[in-house]
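User: Thanks for the earlier help. One more: Pentapeptide repeat-containing protein. Can you show the sequence and predicted structure together?

Assistant: Of course, both are below.
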Amino acid sequence: MTKLLNYNSLLGLNADEIYTYLLIHEQIFDDIDLHSISLKNCVLEKCTFEKTILANSDLDSSQISDSIFSNLSFQNSDIVSCNFENCTFKKISFKGSSFSNNTFSNCKFLSCDFNHVDMHNSTFLNCVIEHMNVRQCSTSLNNFIECTFIQSKINGNFFFNILMNCIYKDTEIDISLVSSNFGIRQASLDQLNFSLYNLQDLQDKLVRNNDLFGAAVIELNTNDCSYDYSMLVCLQATFKQIENNIIIRSEELRFIELLLDYFVAEDLLAPITIIQLLSLVEKILNSNINNIAKSKSTLYLNYIYNVLFKAYQQFVSDLHNTLSEMANDKLPVTIKLTFENEPNVEMCAILTDFQKQLNIDSPAPVRIKTEKGSFIDWIQTHDEILKCLQIIISIIGLAIKLKPSSKKISSKSSSNNEAHKSEKSNISQDNSSNNSNIFSSNGDVLVQLPGSIIRQINQVQTEQAISNAVNVFVINNMTINNNYHGINKYNIKNVECFYG
């Protein structure tokens, strides 16, 4: 293992030198020429750089914490894959420098010159950025999380960034950038004095110019309920461009990947949307289109596909576990569904269609009454049908696990159920035991399936049930364009179920 070498202040740092695996602790560098210095895999702690020339330098894969950089030049430098924590940059010239894959946590940038800077794939977390004037620079695919911008101006080539929960004080942002960056939400719009009327006007203009991608990004910023629809529009617009051999910027495709990463991590996309997005990307990749636009996009479309497929697999796994825990005692159950507004299709009819798809031998669910106000739908059925309902509400993105209350069950049924669970548990343990031992008694390596593949095999029935649920949506003409006829996560307020 490579060890860090302690920095010896007597030896000093010199311009044009390369330093690797160096630990520099509590050192002051004042009025020194360190141009073209290279620091790679180094650690700097509690250091101060004052009036120092660091132009044409390389900072690579280094960690810098609790340090101060003041009144110095970082011009034409490369800062790559570094981690800065609790650092202050005051009156620094970054002119002509390149930032890539860096993380800045709890840092302050005070009156720094970012002119002609190339900044991408970097994260700014809880940073203060004061008197930042972004112009004549390339700034893309960065994450600004909970940052505060003070007396700054952002315009020009500032595209495809994510700005979440940021505060803007006396700051100006070109309104057109709302169509190419995500996270400028309602509170931010108010701070920036953007009116929804002006944004609507910009959105209409983009639609007239066939820039559906930009129009969809504005919708993402201004409408919290539009994530599913807007992401589908983004990918559909991408498909149209590829069909017409219109080259798409790689940054735009990477931006879609970043957005999907964020929405998936925050559970903001319904699984049925993820399924539709997967189908759309797969359609693009497997199409017979053979042009330059597709060849230049394929790599990034595969990145997008991987994000979606991973999210889909996680959904299947979670749903499989939820269904495995549900009882199947063939007991009568009453379901109470509370809607914001009455849906255009009866849940009872959907459950009946789903029951037929799954060949469940049970009495069909029956609507017993409805109530007005918030629309309330009461359904009488048996607990086998609860799995149908669980799949439906899970696929539309409702994080509700159905667990009937006031369960009435005979001791015989209970013991049979426990025996079944015990048997199931023993089988699971046996599989786990078999998989953990990869050597035979004579030391030969045994052939075995990886755990991930075994899990997929176990989840085949769940995936088939998901496919059947999608068929039910198709049969009932439930699409995102008609908000699934009111069977969606925004209209369903609560789901309860009771035995008896």
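User: Great, one quick takeaway?

Assistant: The mean pLDDT is 87.
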